[in-house]
Please model this.
Amino acid sequence: MSSKLFHNCRIYTPVDKGEPAAGMAQSNITHYNQGALLVENGMISKIGAESDVLKSLQNRTIDQFIDCKSRCMIPGFVDPHTHMCFAAERESEFQMRLDGMAYLDILKRGGGILSSVDGVKKATVEELYENCLKHALKALSLGTTTLEIKSGYGLDTENELKMLRAIGKVSRTTPQDVVATFLGAHAVPAAYKDDPDTFIDLVITEMLPAVSRQGVATQCDIFCEKGVFTIDQGRRLLRAAKELGMAVKIHADEVHDLGGAALAAELGAISADHLLAANDENIIKMARAGVVANLLPATAYSLKKPYARARKMIDNRLPVALATDCNPGSSYTESMPFVIGLAILNMEMSPAEALTAATLNSAYSTGVADRCGSLDPGKQADLLLLDGESPAILAYHAGVSPVARVYKHGEKVC
Model:
């Protein structure tokens, strides 16, 4: 059995009590100013004050001692919402938005998601894999040790499966844990623009069964929004996915308040994502149903929209998670430190709440909290060392990454 002792570190970790942290519990952080963490065979074995951990190991042989030099230690980030499997960037659309064109207007003109669909259709699995891997490894260097990656730029069975195969290859190549999400209903294809119900039928009867048979995704998502898919269409698709044993989540109330948050509560989704326009009543419904709110501040930043109401959600005991939404259109960033900084400075979240949102709650919203998201014995030794005294450095040292070291299963990967 191989063992490593990380010592001389300032440890900060959320407290995992078997469910997403909500309300005041979202700011509940265990802190050891002079801490130590023992790793055995890639798993956390002990954690605590350094003097206590050393005392418990008096009769043990430790293979390696790692002096953290008083750096801050936190869990590796879990990014629960990305679209980083794509073929081409959309820089020209960024300029359109700067010139005042609305995101949904760009989509109506065949841009946005539909532009990325054209790129995916022309790309090979290998090309998609190489581009996706590049983004995943960039995220790793910025501290993301676990991430979700969606399909959604295929919009037909062949190309959705092509994307999911590329994502699967990334999961086998990168040190990170990768969770694949099927997002076949990301936009209405041009051929179905006047009949989106028929397209939803196709997703339910052809795409979903193929994804399930091949075992290439464990989660299903849909973009419910004005001009995209309705709440009724979302209900039909997500119910079908649940019948196939898939966890469900929903792009909800990003631009308009259609009631996506209420649908997430009704179906017991693991998360509802975006929520910039979600109303108070549906926020409370989500909280009562145990749905996690995945908030994506870099998207609001990029689209120049008001941020989701994180303070309102936390005060109503709705668990909040944070994600990059890394995609070629509305949020082109792999940086969880950037997202955390936005949440602290623009969304009224404390450093403790933001740390929990980017680790423990995001792990719950991705279905992986049993193995990551906090520094607890029995979980993977996925951890970061920061060039700072506390997690506040993530917002305080703006515009750069304070992530000094990244460890996955106790092994240094960056």
About this structure: The domain at 77-364 is CATH 3.20.20.140 (TIM Barrel). DSSP finds 16 helices and 16 strands in the chain. The chain has a mean pLDDT of 96. The two ends are 24 Å apart (CA to CA).
